[in-house]
Fold:
Amino acid sequence: MRVPSIADTARTWLALAAATSALAVAVSVSVSVSVSASVSAPASEPAYQLAVLPTGFTAAARRGRQFQIYELAASGAHLDEYAVTANADARVVGSPGGPLIAQISRGRFELLHARSGELVASFANASRMCDTPAASNDVRYGVAYLASDDNNVHVVHGETSRPATASDDELAAPARRPKSWCGVASAGRDLVLLWRTGDRLYFNACNDRSCRGPVTSIRLPASDKLLGAGCTERAGCLIATRDGGTGAQQLVLVTPAGGVKWRHPLDARADTISIVGAGDRAFAVGAPGSAFGIDRDGTLMPLWTGDAEPVVAASRGRVLVAHGHTFTTVSYP
Structure:
């Protein structure tokens, strides 16, 4: 008998929600889904980047050499939009002064105000952005890149809601070791830097002072593809992987101590899976055809279903789902 996957279960639960008003009784869940806003975006099909602002969210969609920036309220309501010129590797994060654009230009990492173009910070010896380069929640933002002088991963980070100088820190890892993949994820007040070397995936906790925290790792065969990662302060990190041999995809919860708590099949075929921490013990996941919440015990909560490949962001008990041409906010957890 085929074991239902997470995406199967999400679609089934949302079908039940449409068929009956007694959702909590029918599927025995304790958290209700409350969609408070669904705001249309332009007619093109952009690949959104999402980030958190002090009082809402921001989204960015690339159009040639320009980003179309959308500023949204916490409800998802449209507040403003404007176009900015940015490099191909640019990423958006949120700050007290509004959206910031991070990019590498002529070997330097640059952080600029999206609206004005004013330079916020600049650091030398930048080689390339990490594969999952940006992290953003209602406390901190971070952008990770590889340095050209030692092949180490750096993270430029700052406060989302409180003015502070952007800092540049290295991870606590041996320099010059080849890294086939790197990324950064929000984890409450902290950040987690991730990188792959050989058949290991490493996790490096960073506080607001440095990235000299503990480093843990799990085995991840070099042939397996890492599709996405998100972290929380207490539950650890949720990663999505694809087996290099069978092609099977799964979600894996890695504890803060570096153990594997559980694995769940994920039947939605995609090259990237959007994952963010939601609160300190749960995650929001965007996969082709559905967005859902899942906590550290593996309890599932459907958030959205449709035909698009959604991207998610989370802040103050709400999840923003960007799907197709629409932004939707949902209460979770």
